[in-house]
């Protein structure tokens, strides 16, 4: 028996460890800030105020968080089946095509709430389709899903640029983007939700897709822990040999898990394309797919953890933007460094503190 | 304990090779070693015997530096030493031969011996040194192995010799062997014992960990018995008996044979015809095997590990695709069917390896109680999983099989080996299958649970089921089976009744007589 097999109570695994990791990340970020000659505490203040200080700041934070929830769920679902889907970025990008096509087709004829269900299906279908080929290659040919999904990010990006430059572009315009959707193809903002808390949303693009994301959190929880398919995915993810023993079909389970994962990634485009810019633009995903990996890792692939981690990264995105504005010494690149430190400590070094905590906890944990 | 003709000088010879004083080790709530004291004389073979989970492996891991003791002291030739890692153990002259060999399969013997002791950036010097040293070891101890043979092409017995050579090359004066005969044929085991005797006579100290009483009696000078983390007794081998050791191991009188009535075989339920299975490298593992299993009988398959029993079992269970041949369940051809279809036809399977197949160790107990049967509508309609129903049934099985602790929400990894096996046995038998195929039913299971599981297997037979049993424990095969098939090199080389004499079975298992 090593310390890895000693179980810690939930409040340590899911509470204390992530919190300590976050504090460590902040400490080292503080060192970096101090090293370039700024006051770390001042910087932290700007960061928090920039992310949570005003109604519109919170709106932006939650807007980013919404994208991260979708991509975080996407990574988590695949991860439960033992698949490391690095392709949420590309699946979200191609999913945007699905959402945009629905919006372009319907926005003239029906109100947004009629467009929305079709847009969800369109975004999910296109995202899932983009995940299907790597899934099939993994299931049937044994091509490693990490490699193929990375490749498909590039292929997806090239495909989208081609479509936007040559096919979907508005004739006579220079910008590689579709026409602006009419209100029937837009997802309305959630100013009423903010007003409930006495906050003004202002220009922030916080929109209905946040609620869709929360519904998806519930559905993912239901899928993973309350359905037979979820049971099979978890069995396969933890012990492929036990899955073979139990007669769980590998090919089918891998493909279904990746379709769901790709579909969730695709839905991220609802937020960016239909909620914020009201048109399909190049590179609208802007790294949200990769942040999803960190969000899923930090959130322990559980929807509740994912929501919390997504909000944390939303804070870093929005607060970071504000910080680099307030402290010109801290450039956008510095913000990326700080985000990287959070990913490093919260995600990649997840188990660094565990053995020490096991040793600390053990004398008290005996029954 | 001191042997005649001891070649060592008096002052060191009078000191024991190893002294463990008050060794104590806990893993969380598990008290693996309780205040262990052990003295092993130089130039002797000392056996350590005990059930699985008695703490033998933990104790040896402490001696070899895998774990650190919470308390206590290790003395080598009278000098206290701190063994922080295996490197320190090697420096202290301790060598370990693991149950599962630590060899690079596609390296040669010489390369394996040299590994970790290359003696510089360039290999040439190391190679000549190792070659010379191997020659000397061969002469001194009769350990002949071709230094240029590739490991994966050597028989298992020779691979084990390489492990011993590795330890000796690093200057080991004390050799620890962990269950060394598990993978050997009886003839290979005899050869190993002769080597160990030579090593002892040359002054090496040997610690032999095993759960086989016969080996202890055959080769050791002294023996210590462990039970539940404690060292309960140390005896001179010449002054003890198998019965006494068994009683010390378990803490009570042991029923060495299972009570059962005459078999009452009925219709053939499971037939295998000319079954051949090749592994992924194209090596034939099961070679043209045919047999029948009838309702109400237990057919045992005896054989040394690695002679195709595992592959045969997996082919019947639908886990491995047979290369050719046929399998019938009640006359219906089923070869190539997947495990879920076979379950639907009434075939239950207790796999050899509960850690990797029979259970998902990270799951809670109740989740494992439906593995393989989870698509059944009784565990939830449609695609949903009815956790209430699953937990309720899990609780019933826990009560019926006395699984401890009786908590369906506990992680499966936190159950003991015996209780984990009971989870699997309960799941497979309680589905009331027509056929039950079992691999190593009591591997790593404590004796109390062994009796219980054996009883269940016989009850299953008496309920009119067909039972196919694979085990490398000959005693288990003999006490449970109504008929015994012996496998050697992938073939069934003979059939015997349960009364067959052990010598004859042993020879067949070694492929010597049919």
TrEMBL record, chain A:
GO terms for cellular component: plasma membrane. The keyword Transmembrane applies. Its main location: membrane. Pfam families: BPD_transp_2. It is found in: Cell membrane. The chain crosses the membrane at residues 12-37, 57-78, 112-133, 145-169, 204-224, 280-298, 304-323, 335-353. It comes from the Bacteria. Keywords: Cell membrane, Membrane, Transmembrane, Transmembrane helix. It is a multi-pass membrane protein. PANTHER family: ABC TRANSPORTER, PERMEASE PROTEIN, GUANOSINE ABC TRANSPORTER PERMEASE PROTEIN NUPP. This is ABC transporter permease. The lineage of its organism: Bacteria, Pseudomonadati, Pseudomonadota, Alphaproteobacteria, Hyphomicrobiales.
